[in-house]
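I'm stuck. Please check this protein.
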Amino acid sequence: MIVGVPKEIKNHEYRVGLVPAGVRTLVAGGHSVIVEGSAGEGSGISDQDYMEAGAVVAGSAAEVYGDAEMIVKVKEPLPQEYDLLREGQILFTFLHLAPAPELTRALLRQKVIGIAYETVQLDDGSLPLLTLMSEIAGKMSVQIGCHWLEKQSGGSGVLLGGIPGTGPGSVAIIGGGSVGASAAKIALGMGANVTILDVSLDRLRYLSDVLHGKLVCLVSNSSNIEDAVANADLVVGAVLIPGAKAPRLVTRPMISRMRKGSVVVDVSIDQGGCVEGAVPTTFDSPTYVIDGVTFCCLANMPSAVARTSAFALANATIPYALKLADLGYEGAIASDRALKKGVNTFMGRLTNKAVADAVGLEYTPLD
């Protein structure tokens, strides 16, 4: 199979879909890899590194899309890439279709086999390709929140960890999955007061056992969320329903009760956001203010640590990419239930029910 790796063109997206180790794995398996020139530059990978691994370096994205039977990316295609996709081509990347009806229609129109990293799901419910980026985004959410809390950044001037004689700041984390747990680790490590909310009592028990510090674990309901948000200097949105649009759990009235200069970092913005008023932002314009509260809703937050992110993601995706290359999409999907759950679009049909419900289009079971 010919595997193509185009350069990411999303605003300040520096990650790349395959690293040289992945290229070597595919080439050793008898496959060909074509990489767009300078695709790995943002992750510290040169064209020479790719060539030494066995890849062919192409001069344009059109050449990569035109030759490849499978496209391996990081982020969803942008409008200028839609027409480069073609019928029967495998697109293996983060798609996040629930809040993106235009992209969904484009993939259906082009009749691609759209396999989304975020919906590849093991039998135990875990999401092996999403988890790594969720962990990075969770850790970064507190780091970013600290920056925007600083007075010169427009924040309230609160140091989350506090100092002896002055109390620490408070962090409210909505959702106790990979993002929430990673955010809590960093915030607790700083010495902040941390409240984490989740609908699962079992998950809350687990977090209470493994996370130590000033931690309060609460069942996620409107009353508890309202109290936690009102007392927070930093709110981290970390809600995920695989494939589906994130529910808006934090309302505008809740935000209005926060102290001026407080910060919201909504990591769930890829799936539409869990905070009312949250809209995607970019690294060129990362924040905006509602009711005196700073919102930061970066849709590709892990790109800020592109080298770490690219290598971490590639470690997780390459076994699935190799299986798709070795067996073709039909054989790979038939042999791997987790990969099968990743199929969002198939030859003009929408095959993920959560996405179909979110975008209001007809759902067709993959079988």
